[in-house]
Amino acid sequence: MIDADGVLLWVERRGQGPDVLLVSGLGDPAEVWRSQLDGLADRYRITAFDNRGVGRTPLPEGPLSVPGMADDAAALLRALDVPAAHVTGFSGGSFIAQEMALRHPGLVRSLVLMSTMARPDPYFRAVARFWRWMAERAPGERAMLEAFYLWVYTPRAHADGMVDRLVEETLAFAHPQSVEAFQRQLAAFAGHDTLDRLDRIGVPTLVLSGEVDLVAPPRLGRVVADSIPGAAFEVLPGEAHQPFQEVPDVFNSRVDAFWRAVDAGGPGSG
Protein backbone atom coordinates (compact mmCIF):
# COMPACT_ATOMS: atom_id res chain seq x y z
CA MET A 1 0.00 0.00 0.00
CA ILE A 2 1.24 3.49 -0.90
CA ASP A 3 0.02 6.67 0.77
CA ALA A 4 -0.78 8.94 -2.18
CA ASP A 5 -1.59 12.29 -0.61
CA GLY A 6 -3.75 10.70 2.08
CA VAL A 7 -5.28 8.00 -0.14
CA LEU A 8 -4.01 4.45 0.37
CA LEU A 9 -3.54 2.79 -3.04
CA TRP A 10 -2.49 -0.78 -3.68
CA VAL A 11 0.46 -0.75 -6.08
CA GLU A 12 2.41 -3.37 -7.99
CA ARG A 13 5.77 -2.45 -9.56
CA ARG A 14 8.15 -4.45 -11.70
CA GLY A 15 11.24 -3.92 -13.80
CA GLN A 16 13.81 -1.24 -14.46
CA GLY A 17 14.00 1.48 -17.08
CA PRO A 18 11.79 4.39 -18.16
CA ASP A 19 8.71 4.70 -15.95
CA VAL A 20 5.33 3.49 -17.21
CA LEU A 21 2.06 3.98 -15.30
CA LEU A 22 -0.81 1.64 -16.20
CA VAL A 23 -4.32 2.89 -15.35
CA SER A 24 -7.12 0.31 -15.20
CA GLY A 25 -10.72 0.58 -16.30
CA LEU A 26 -14.07 -0.23 -14.69
CA GLY A 27 -13.77 -2.81 -11.93
CA ASP A 28 -10.26 -3.90 -12.90
CA PRO A 29 -7.52 -4.37 -10.30
CA ALA A 30 -3.82 -4.15 -11.11
CA GLU A 31 -3.83 -7.83 -12.11
CA VAL A 32 -5.62 -6.98 -15.36
CA TRP A 33 -2.20 -5.80 -16.62
CA ARG A 34 -0.49 -9.13 -15.93
CA SER A 35 0.70 -9.54 -19.53
CA GLN A 36 2.25 -6.07 -19.47
CA LEU A 37 3.78 -6.49 -16.01
CA ASP A 38 5.30 -9.77 -17.22
CA GLY A 39 6.06 -8.80 -20.80
CA LEU A 40 7.48 -5.28 -20.54
CA ALA A 41 9.36 -5.25 -17.24
CA ASP A 42 12.61 -6.21 -18.95
CA ARG A 43 12.67 -2.75 -20.56
CA TYR A 44 10.57 -0.49 -18.32
CA ARG A 45 9.73 0.13 -14.69
CA ILE A 46 6.03 -0.74 -14.75
CA THR A 47 3.62 0.55 -12.11
CA ALA A 48 0.02 -0.68 -11.90
CA PHE A 49 -2.42 0.10 -9.10
CA ASP A 50 -5.95 -0.41 -7.82
CA ASN A 51 -8.21 2.62 -8.23
CA ARG A 52 -10.46 3.65 -5.37
CA GLY A 53 -12.99 0.94 -4.55
CA VAL A 54 -11.20 -1.70 -6.65
CA GLY A 55 -9.18 -4.65 -5.41
CA ARG A 56 -7.29 -3.79 -2.23
CA THR A 57 -7.82 0.00 -2.39
CA PRO A 58 -10.73 0.97 -0.13
CA LEU A 59 -13.84 2.78 -1.32
CA PRO A 60 -14.09 6.26 0.24
CA GLU A 61 -17.24 8.07 1.28
CA GLY A 62 -18.91 10.29 -1.30
CA PRO A 63 -19.05 10.19 -5.08
CA LEU A 64 -16.12 9.21 -7.25
CA SER A 65 -14.97 11.43 -10.10
CA VAL A 66 -12.58 11.03 -13.00
CA PRO A 67 -10.65 14.21 -12.05
CA GLY A 68 -10.34 12.90 -8.50
CA MET A 69 -8.99 9.57 -9.70
CA ALA A 70 -6.57 11.45 -11.96
CA ASP A 71 -5.35 13.36 -8.91
CA ASP A 72 -4.85 10.01 -7.14
CA ALA A 73 -2.68 8.76 -10.01
CA ALA A 74 -0.63 11.96 -9.98
CA ALA A 75 -0.19 11.75 -6.20
CA LEU A 76 0.96 8.16 -6.60
CA LEU A 77 3.72 9.15 -9.01
CA ARG A 78 4.85 11.87 -6.64
CA ALA A 79 4.82 9.46 -3.69
CA LEU A 80 6.99 7.07 -5.71
CA ASP A 81 9.37 9.92 -6.66
CA VAL A 82 8.63 9.45 -10.37
CA PRO A 83 9.26 12.78 -12.13
CA ALA A 84 7.27 11.78 -15.24
CA ALA A 85 5.94 8.56 -16.75
CA HIS A 86 4.57 7.12 -19.96
CA VAL A 87 0.90 6.91 -18.93
CA THR A 88 -1.26 4.19 -20.47
CA GLY A 89 -4.97 4.07 -19.70
CA PHE A 90 -7.57 1.55 -20.78
CA SER A 91 -11.30 2.37 -21.13
CA GLY A 92 -12.25 4.26 -17.94
CA GLY A 93 -8.56 4.34 -17.16
CA SER A 94 -8.02 6.21 -20.43
CA PHE A 95 -10.48 8.83 -19.14
CA ILE A 96 -8.33 9.13 -16.02
CA ALA A 97 -5.19 9.37 -18.18
CA GLN A 98 -6.72 12.20 -20.22
CA GLU A 99 -7.56 14.16 -17.09
CA MET A 100 -4.14 13.44 -15.67
CA ALA A 101 -2.47 14.93 -18.76
CA LEU A 102 -4.70 18.00 -18.45
CA ARG A 103 -4.41 18.49 -14.69
CA HIS A 104 -0.82 17.32 -14.13
CA PRO A 105 0.96 17.74 -17.47
CA GLY A 106 4.44 17.75 -15.98
CA LEU A 107 4.01 14.18 -14.75
CA VAL A 108 3.01 12.76 -18.14
CA ARG A 109 5.79 11.86 -20.58
CA SER A 110 3.40 10.40 -23.16
CA LEU A 111 -0.12 8.97 -23.43
CA VAL A 112 -1.44 5.68 -24.75
CA LEU A 113 -5.24 5.71 -24.75
CA MET A 114 -6.79 2.27 -25.36
CA SER A 115 -10.54 1.86 -25.98
CA THR A 116 -11.19 5.51 -25.28
CA MET A 117 -13.60 8.36 -25.88
CA ALA A 118 -13.78 12.07 -25.11
CA ARG A 119 -17.45 12.13 -24.14
CA PRO A 120 -19.86 9.20 -23.73
CA ASP A 121 -22.40 9.04 -26.53
CA PRO A 122 -26.06 8.02 -26.04
CA TYR A 123 -25.21 4.37 -26.80
CA PHE A 124 -22.54 4.23 -24.09
CA ARG A 125 -24.83 5.95 -21.59
CA ALA A 126 -27.52 3.34 -22.32
CA VAL A 127 -24.98 0.56 -21.82
CA ALA A 128 -23.94 2.14 -18.51
CA ARG A 129 -27.56 2.22 -17.33
CA PHE A 130 -27.91 -1.45 -18.26
CA TRP A 131 -24.72 -2.40 -16.44
CA ARG A 132 -25.92 -0.56 -13.35
CA TRP A 133 -29.07 -2.61 -12.89
CA MET A 134 -27.39 -5.77 -14.20
CA ALA A 135 -24.96 -5.59 -11.26
CA GLU A 136 -27.92 -5.40 -8.86
CA ARG A 137 -30.20 -7.98 -10.43
CA ALA A 138 -27.95 -10.67 -11.88
CA PRO A 139 -28.76 -13.97 -10.13
CA GLY A 140 -25.17 -14.32 -8.99
CA GLU A 141 -21.60 -13.12 -9.49
CA ARG A 142 -20.91 -15.71 -12.18
CA ALA A 143 -23.97 -14.63 -14.16
CA MET A 144 -22.94 -10.99 -13.80
CA LEU A 145 -19.45 -11.70 -15.13
CA GLU A 146 -20.69 -13.84 -18.01
CA ALA A 147 -23.08 -11.07 -19.08
CA PHE A 148 -20.53 -8.28 -18.60
CA TYR A 149 -17.82 -10.09 -20.56
CA LEU A 150 -20.11 -10.33 -23.59
CA TRP A 151 -19.50 -6.62 -24.05
CA VAL A 152 -15.73 -6.54 -23.72
CA TYR A 153 -14.20 -9.67 -25.28
CA THR A 154 -14.27 -11.01 -28.83
CA PRO A 155 -16.29 -14.07 -29.88
CA ARG A 156 -12.87 -15.68 -30.32
CA ALA A 157 -12.15 -15.31 -26.61
CA HIS A 158 -15.49 -16.88 -25.75
CA ALA A 159 -14.85 -19.78 -28.13
CA ASP A 160 -11.28 -20.60 -27.14
CA GLY A 161 -11.89 -20.75 -23.38
CA MET A 162 -10.24 -17.45 -22.45
CA VAL A 163 -13.45 -15.95 -21.08
CA ASP A 164 -14.19 -19.08 -19.04
CA ARG A 165 -10.72 -18.85 -17.52
CA LEU A 166 -11.16 -15.15 -16.71
CA VAL A 167 -14.51 -15.82 -15.05
CA GLU A 168 -12.93 -18.48 -12.83
CA GLU A 169 -9.97 -16.24 -11.97
CA THR A 170 -12.28 -13.35 -11.09
CA LEU A 171 -14.49 -15.54 -8.91
CA ALA A 172 -11.40 -16.80 -7.09
CA PHE A 173 -9.93 -13.31 -6.59
CA ALA A 174 -9.65 -12.54 -2.89
CA HIS A 175 -10.68 -8.88 -3.23
CA PRO A 176 -13.90 -8.69 -5.30
CA GLN A 177 -15.43 -5.32 -6.03
CA SER A 178 -18.73 -4.56 -4.32
CA VAL A 179 -21.83 -3.67 -6.30
CA GLU A 180 -21.76 -0.19 -4.73
CA ALA A 181 -18.16 0.40 -5.79
CA PHE A 182 -18.88 -0.86 -9.32
CA GLN A 183 -21.86 1.47 -9.66
CA ARG A 184 -20.07 4.50 -8.24
CA GLN A 185 -17.09 3.99 -10.52
CA LEU A 186 -19.42 3.47 -13.47
CA ALA A 187 -21.25 6.73 -12.67
CA ALA A 188 -17.95 8.59 -12.64
CA PHE A 189 -16.92 7.20 -16.02
CA ALA A 190 -20.36 7.89 -17.53
CA GLY A 191 -19.89 11.56 -16.57
CA HIS A 192 -16.51 11.86 -18.28
CA ASP A 193 -16.13 14.81 -20.65
CA THR A 194 -12.86 16.21 -21.98
CA LEU A 195 -13.99 16.92 -25.53
CA ASP A 196 -13.53 20.69 -25.36
CA ARG A 197 -10.17 20.47 -23.53
CA LEU A 198 -8.22 17.79 -25.37
CA ASP A 199 -6.51 20.34 -27.58
CA ARG A 200 -4.57 21.44 -24.47
CA ILE A 201 -2.74 18.11 -24.25
CA GLY A 202 0.82 18.65 -25.45
CA VAL A 203 2.49 15.25 -25.01
CA PRO A 204 2.97 12.54 -27.65
CA THR A 205 -0.21 10.48 -27.78
CA LEU A 206 -1.17 7.15 -29.31
CA VAL A 207 -4.88 6.27 -29.50
CA LEU A 208 -5.74 2.60 -30.06
CA SER A 209 -9.18 1.18 -30.83
CA GLY A 210 -10.41 -2.35 -31.36
CA GLU A 211 -12.13 -2.77 -34.71
CA VAL A 212 -15.14 -4.62 -33.21
CA ASP A 213 -15.27 -2.83 -29.84
CA LEU A 214 -18.94 -2.46 -28.87
CA VAL A 215 -18.35 -0.17 -25.88
CA ALA A 216 -15.78 2.28 -27.30
CA PRO A 217 -15.89 1.83 -31.09
CA PRO A 218 -13.19 3.30 -33.33
CA ARG A 219 -15.31 6.29 -34.29
CA LEU A 220 -15.08 7.53 -30.69
CA GLY A 221 -11.35 6.90 -30.51
CA ARG A 222 -10.91 8.83 -33.73
CA VAL A 223 -12.56 11.89 -32.12
CA VAL A 224 -10.02 11.74 -29.30
CA ALA A 225 -7.08 11.44 -31.69
CA ASP A 226 -8.35 14.25 -33.89
CA SER A 227 -8.73 16.51 -30.84
CA ILE A 228 -5.20 16.03 -29.43
CA PRO A 229 -2.53 17.86 -31.46
CA GLY A 230 -0.27 15.42 -33.27
CA ALA A 231 -1.91 12.28 -31.86
CA ALA A 232 -1.60 9.02 -33.78
CA PHE A 233 -4.64 6.79 -34.24
CA GLU A 234 -4.67 3.08 -35.01
CA VAL A 235 -7.37 0.43 -35.23
CA LEU A 236 -6.48 -3.12 -34.20
CA PRO A 237 -8.18 -5.42 -36.74
CA GLY A 238 -10.57 -7.99 -35.34
CA GLU A 239 -10.11 -6.87 -31.73
CA ALA A 240 -12.69 -5.77 -29.19
CA HIS A 241 -12.45 -3.75 -25.97
CA GLN A 242 -9.46 -5.41 -24.28
CA PRO A 243 -6.71 -6.24 -26.80
CA PHE A 244 -4.01 -5.81 -24.18
CA GLN A 245 -5.37 -9.02 -22.64
CA GLU A 246 -6.46 -10.89 -25.76
CA VAL A 247 -3.42 -10.17 -27.96
CA PRO A 248 -0.82 -8.95 -25.46
CA ASP A 249 2.13 -9.54 -27.78
CA VAL A 250 0.59 -7.25 -30.40
CA PHE A 251 -0.28 -4.60 -27.83
CA ASN A 252 3.07 -4.77 -26.03
CA SER A 253 5.02 -4.52 -29.27
CA ARG A 254 3.07 -1.46 -30.39
CA VAL A 255 3.34 0.48 -27.15
CA ASP A 256 7.01 -0.46 -26.79
CA ALA A 257 7.72 0.97 -30.25
CA PHE A 258 5.81 4.13 -29.36
CA TRP A 259 7.61 4.63 -26.05
CA ARG A 260 10.99 4.04 -27.67
CA ALA A 261 10.18 6.66 -30.30
CA VAL A 262 9.09 9.14 -27.62
CA ASP A 263 12.24 8.57 -25.58
CA ALA A 264 14.35 8.98 -28.72
CA GLY A 265 12.39 12.05 -29.81
CA GLY A 266 12.13 10.70 -33.35
CA PRO A 267 9.41 9.83 -35.89
CA GLY A 268 6.41 8.00 -34.51
CA SER A 269 6.50 9.83 -31.20
CA GLY A 270 3.31 11.79 -31.92
TrEMBL record:
Pfam families: Abhydrolase_1 (PF00561). Residues 20-243 form the AB hydrolase-1 domain. GO terms for molecular function: hydrolase activity. Keywords: Hydrolase. This is Alpha/beta hydrolase.
